[in-house]
Design brief:
- The protein is mainly β.
- It is 6% helix and 41% strand.
- Among the domains are: 100 residues, Immunoglobulin-like (Sandwich); 94 residues, Immunoglobulins (Immunoglobulin-like, Sandwich); 88 residues, Sandwich (Immunoglobulin-like), CATH 2.60.40.10; 92 residues, Immunoglobulins (Immunoglobulin-like, Sandwich); 86 residues, Immunoglobulins (Immunoglobulin-like, Sandwich), CATH 2.60.40; 91 residues, Immunoglobulins (Immunoglobulin-like, Sandwich); 88 residues, Immunoglobulin-like, CATH 2.60.40.10; 100 residues, Immunoglobulins (Immunoglobulin-like, Sandwich).
- The strands form 25 sheets. Strands 1, 49, 52, 53, 56 and 57 form a six-stranded mixed sheet that branches. Strands 3, 6, 7, 10, 11 and 12 form a six-stranded mixed sheet that branches. Strands 13, 15, 18, 19 and 20 form a five-stranded mixed sheet that branches.
């Protein structure tokens, strides 16, 4: 439990130096270092945000712009693209030695008059640096338009939307709903506010009419709340409402309210789309109407929802992703369902991106005649446009030549400098922009010739703890870039390797400081213009440790309690021991006694209970240990404590971080109450907010007697820790999280896994590997160094650096072995190299084919295969197998149709005379086959085709076998021919078993048999098989049904029973007699009185019959029939069952004798009704007469 508080500052400085390890030496920006240098172009170090919103009530608006350089920069501003003359505006002032503007309004003026786009220019004789364009806007809180809202009528159970429509503010206001009593509106699955501020009711209850609803807008900048006039609901019900009948399980109080299936209130329709920018917040909303209230579920087509990023809010109606990335794009589906149905709405999410940096340009220091480059790489969606500026002016628009023009070449996102000269220093700006935003970066190119200079303090004394990783710092500068070497005690040829590692930025690492490492270390920087040196004295000290820590105690009230804390430390380092209780410093009064190794409480009381911590500190480290004091209350209390059951421990408290270093930190906590079961272990968990925010992962476990531990960490991770106590009962709840601790970046430690090389084409090799995990990257801009060379060729390694997880080597020979290795690297340096693996370039089609394919020893289901092999060098790839293609061409059984599907089987052999066995053939069939040789991707041309026939075999089982009872004494047996007879069928064999075996043999064309049973109550077993010349085939076994309880006994055919035939004959005779009677009756028809006919119109022309009577219309035709009812208006009420209704809307017709022949015919045309036929319409009375 060692601590290193005094060492913390040195360690933190060392971490910063490690971060600079892989970066080029830059001109220092601190003012003290700048004064030592000849010149320095300006650099912007502080500026206001791009979108700058100010409060109109402030008396002063401050627009920041700070820059450094040598000479000290001067500042100017542009407003809306034009020079902003500060001297002409009395309200605007600029701070001294700064570009920050202050606009004051104490003497009048409006902030709105100063809205616009501002940009700061910092200038000295070496160049001009630009700030971002700062859009200054004044916060606005417009008033809500006054309006009178009429009561809103709504039917109970119907959906409702109350619009808010808040006034547009800057920034937008926060919306919430309240009633007139300033009570927030209760929201749940049924009632909730949408993203647009509207209030949605999935269905309305009568109780909703008891409140009024007012939308409120809170403007954060002005701290004001505006309220819209309230809505009043008038809920209409179909049945009377009784307040006393309401309960939560039946909100309608037993009244019938029509249920409705789900429908979407927001968004509308079945589909919509949404665009969101990378790293912004994605909010998707689905609010549905329906009764019962629908539930909402979310899905993502083509994959799962990202569980670690997605959160559901507003009762599952809102899906939220805090920081969107490209992989979050896709189609999201929300489903609303209740017991009446479900509906879906698809939202097509498109993720665009404002520009973001891939490689931000950095300052470049060159000596005369040196070469260099500036790189500006950015990504976005759409792809950003890159524009270069020099000293604030676009390079492409420069008309006049400058000293740097001849030595400069712009190639897209890169500027190349060749043979630079003194006087060509400048500040370059890279602007990456697309329709969603822009990035602006300044990077100066400074051309200097300067002898080496030391920038750090002279003759430092560094004290470190033994066995710790140590860094000695020697910052320097010079141009051309000096070479720096370290020496110990003025001797040696330079320290680098083994225990030491020298970094390019001047830092010397001692991997594990020992006593023999003490001494004076000298760093010397050299370039062509001179040299400079500095010294650091290193002292290695023994660690400060607690060797006897305080222990947990449980003592009686009034007794003495003592905590021991014995310490050892380096003799040259003074130490100080302090005691705390529950994290608070102890006031050592008359009750508490302290000496060098213990703390004593003579007479304990309840107030003394707590956690006591002993802390020992030196100037470079510290250590601490804790113990709990429990006060009991005599024997009774003790027995209660001892007899009460143990429980889960309380979580630890007061987590604290100390002793930060590059890859470790000390975590200290105070244990909670162990709940009468000693803590056996502490589990430390961590969460990091970059790769998997919100996910807690196990880090380490420690014994239960520790409360201060060193945690080994990964670089470039923003950690947060929590501790879980474990006793015999189980785990405690997690503690509150510790403060965050971010480790500095470092080169990778891990080697990419699963390195392999393989060819996707005949002339390439794809080198692939598994990328490093997020916590293995150790720093930004992770890339991979990949090397390859042809195996056993003696060639030099070829290498490439890529950020992908695959690299394709092109123009290779076919299937050639390569040696491959890989190394991960980031901005801080390179990691370890992998072992060499063997990969192969791509494969091509084999040039040779197997020959002399033949068969031998052909049986019914197998055959021996022989062939002549190929030269393996002709395979042009990895030899996989000799692949045999074979298929059943036909069956030798006449009329049997077979499948000609090709099958394959493989033979892996490299013997000179290969052979194999082809199995699972169908007997009595004709086969064809050929062979190829195969590598991993291709097959050769086929060998010669071979035909062969298999011998006859035994048949398959019959296709089916059924047994039915025709009567109590007989069984009906029926079967089907085998699907594969495997030869010529010569018959069937049936074996019946009940004690003894009875054999029956049938011809091949017989497929049924009736068997008379000697014992109707017995059960019989039957085995049926087909026969060929080879023998008996597969058996189909069945058992006879029982005559008393089997459901499948055949039913007696009723049509064959005598009583049924006699009954049918009698019924037929009766029907014949009735038909004859009806015919006679109809033949006796005659003319009918006109007045008895139904009042239906005739044709316009009266018709005269043979007997002299006329068909004509008369007034009597309009009279009702005798016995019929007359309607109120005097019209005849027709019978409900008029035969006209059974036709197709036309008139019926009669023969001359009055018989009815047209009940179901359509009304004839006039020319069809002329002659001797009557055109009278039929009526129910006519129909009755015709049958009389």
């Amino acid at each position: 439990m060692l601590g290193k508080v005094g060492h913390a500052a040195l360690t933190l400085l060392s971490l910063l130096l490690l971060w600079q390890e892989a970066a080029a030496i830059e001109v220092p920006l601190d003012r003290k270092s700048l004064n030592r240098l000849k010149s320095q172009p300006p650099t912007i170090i502080k500026q206001s945000v791009k979108d700058y919103i100010v409060d109109p009530r402030d008396n002063t608006i401050i627009i920041e712009c700070e820059a450094k350089g040598n000479p000290v920069p001067t500042f100017s501003w542009r407003r809306n693209g034009r020079l902003f003359n500060i001297g002409k505006d009395p309200r605007v002032t600029m701070r001294k030695r700064s570009g920050t503007l202050e606009v004051g309004f104490r003497s009048g003026g409006r902030p709105e008059d100063y809205e616009g786009e501002y940009q700061c220019f910092a200038t000295n004789e070496l160049g001009v640096a630009l700030s971002n364009k700062i859009l200054l806007r004044v916060s606005k809180a417009p008033l809500w338009p006054k309006e009178v809202l009429a009561p809103v009528p709504v039917t109970e159970g119907s959906p409702l939307v109350l619009p808010c429509n808040p006034p547009p503010g800057l920034p937008p206001p926060l919306i919430f709903w309240m009633d007139s009593n300033m009570t927030p509106i209760h929201q749940d699955r049924r009632v909730s506010m949408g993203l647009n501020g509207d209030l949605y009711f999935s269905n309305v209850l009568v109780q909703d009419g008891q409140n009024d609803y007012s939308c409120n807008a809170r403007f954060n900048f002005t701290y004001t709340i505006q309220q819209k006039n309230p809505f009043n609901l008038k809920v209409q019900t179909r049945e009377p409402y009784n307040d006393t009948s309401y309960n939560a399980s039946d909100p309608f109080g037993g009244r019938k309210v029509a249920e409705t299936p789900p429908s979407f209130l927001s968004p509308e329709g079945s589909g919509s789309s949404k665009m969101v920018l990378r790293d912004e917040r994605l909010l998707l909303e689905c609010i549905a109407a329906g009764l019962p209230t629908p539930s909402i579920k979310w899905f993502k087509r083509g994959g799962d929802l990202p569980a670690l990023k997605v959160k559901f809010e507003n009762f599952n109606k809102t899906l939220k992703i805090l920081s969107v990335s490209e992989e979050d794009a896709g189609e999201y589906v929300c489903m609303a369902d209740n017991r009446l149905g479900s509906i879906r709405h698809s939202i097509d999410v498109q993720v665009k991106a404002a520009p973001y940096w891939l490689d931000k340009p950095t300052n470049l220091v060159l000596a005369p005649e040196e070469n260099g480059r500036l790189v500006c790489r950015a990504n976005g969606n759409p792809k950003p446009n890159i524009q270069w500026l020099m000293n604030g002016e676009p390079i492409n628009s420069m008309i006049t030549e400058t000293p740097t023009s001849a030595n400069r070449e712009v190639l897209g996102d890169t500027i190349l400098f060749r043979g630079v000269q003194i006087g060509s220093s400048a500040v370059y700006q890279c602007n990456a922009s697309n329709q969603h935003g822009y990035l602006l970066a300044n990077a100066f190119v400074s051309v200097l010739d300067m002898a080496p200079r030391m920038l750090g303090p002279k003759n430092q004394l560094i004290k470190v703890v033994m066995n710790n990783r140590t860094f000695l710092n020697c910052p320097f500068f010079g141009s051309p870039l000096p070479e720096l070497r370290w020496f110990k005690n003025g001797q040696g040829s330079g320290l680098d390797g083994g225990q030491y590692r020298a970094y390019i930025n001047g830092t010397l690492e001692i991997k594990r400081a020992r006593k023999e490492d003490e001494g004076i270390y000298t760093c010397v920087a050299n370039n062509m213009l001179g040299n400079a040196e500095n010294q650091v004295q290193l002292e290695v000290k023994e660690p400060t440790r607690i060797i006897q820590a305080p222990t947990h105690q449980s003592v009686l009230r009034g007794s003495k309690a003592s905590f021991h804390c014995k310490v050892v430390s380096d003799p040259s380092l003074p130490t100080k021991v302090t005691w705390t209780k529950d994290g608070e410093r102890l006031d050592l009064g008359w009750r508490l006694k302290k000496n060098e190794e213990s703390l004593t409480i003579p007479s304990v009381s309840e107030n003394d209970e707590g956690i006591y911590t002993c802390t020992v500190k030196s100037e470079i480290d510290q250590d601490s240990a804790s113990a709990r004091l429990t006060v009991t209350h005599g024997s009774t209390g003790s027995s209660i404590i001892l007899c009460s059951s143990a429980d889960h421990p309380d979580p630890p408290i007061d987590l604290d971080l100390s002793d930060p270093s590059a890859r470790s930190v000390r975590l200290t906590w105070i244990p909670g109450n162990d709940r009468r079961s000693p803590v056996t272990d502490f589990l430390v968990q961590f969460e990091e907010n970059r790769w998997e925010p919100g996910r807690w992962q196990n880090l380490s476990s420690f014994p239960g007697d520790l409360n201060s531990v060193i945690l080994q960490l990964a670089p470039n991770v923003n950690y947060q820790f929590r501790v879980i106590a474990i006793n015999s009962v189980g785990r405690s709840q997690p503690s509150q999280p510790s403060p965050r601790y971010k480790t500095t970046a470092a080169p990778p430690d891990s080697i990419p896994r699963d390195l392999r090389g393989w060819g996707s084409n005949k002339d390439n090799m794809e080198i692939t590997w598994e990328p490093l995990r997020d916590l293995e990257k150790n720093g930004p801009n992770l890339q991979y160094n990949v090397w390859w060379r042809r195996k056993d060729s003696g060639d030099d390694w070829t290498n490439v650096t890529t950020s992908e997880t695959k690299y394709v080597v092109r123009n290779t020979e076919t299937y050639v072995p390569y040696e491959i290795k890989i190394q991960a690297r980031n901005e801080l340096g390179s990691g370890p190299e992998s072992n060499i693996v063997i990969g192969y370039s791509g494969e091509d089609k084999p040039t040779d084919s197997p020959t002399e394919l033949r068969v031998s020893k052909v049986g019914s289901t197998r055959a021996n295969i022989h062939w002549k092999p190929v030269d393996l060098s002709s395979v042009q790839g990895e030899f996989k197998e000799y692949r045999l293609y074979y298929w059943r061409e036909s069956s030798l059984v006449p009329g049997l149709v077979v499948s000609k599907e090709k099958k394959t089987t493989g033979f892996y052999t490299t013997v000179p005379e290969p052979s194999g066995i082809l199995k699972d053939l169908v007997p009595y069939s004709k086969y064809k086959m050929f062979m190829v040789v195969a590598n991993s991707r291709f097959e050769s041309l086929p060998s010669n085709n071979v035909e062969f026939t298999t011998a006859e075999g035994v048949p398959d089982a019959p296709r089916f076998f059924r047994i039915n009872r025709r009567s109590l004494d007989t069984l009906y047996l029926e079967w089907g021919k085998p699907l594969e007879p495997n030869g010529i069928l010569i018959g069937y064999q049936l074996v019946c078993q009940r004690g003894d075996f009875i054999y029956f043999t049938f011809r091949p064309n017989v497929t049924d048999f009736i068997l008379r049973l000697p014992d109707r109550s017995a059960r019989y077993k039957f085995n049926l098989s087909a026969l060929t010349q080879v023998g008996t085939g597969e058996v189909y076994a069945e058992e006879s049904p029982h005559f008393t309880n089997e459901a499948h006994i055949d039913q007696v055919d009723i049509a064959t029973q005598g009583w049924f035939i006699g009954l049918m004959c009698a019924i037929a005779l009766i029907i014949l007699i009735l038909l004859i009677v009806c015919f006679i009756k109809r033949s006796r028809g005659g003319k009918y009185p006109i007045r008895d006919k139904k009042d239906l119109p005739l044709d316009p022309v009266d018709q005269k019959d043979q007997d002299g009577s006329f068909d004509y219309h008369s007034d009597e035709d309009n009279k009702p029939l005798q016995g019929s009812q007359t309607s109120l208006d005097g019209n005849v009420k027709e019978s409900d069952d008029s035969l006209v209704d059974y036709g197709e809307g036309g008139d019926g017709q009669f023969n001359e004798d009055g018989s009815f022949i047209g009940q179901y015919t359509v009304k004839k045309d006039k020319d069809e009704t002329e002659g001797n036929e009557s055109s009278e319409a039929t009526s129910p009375v006519n129909a009755i007469y015709s049958l009389a």
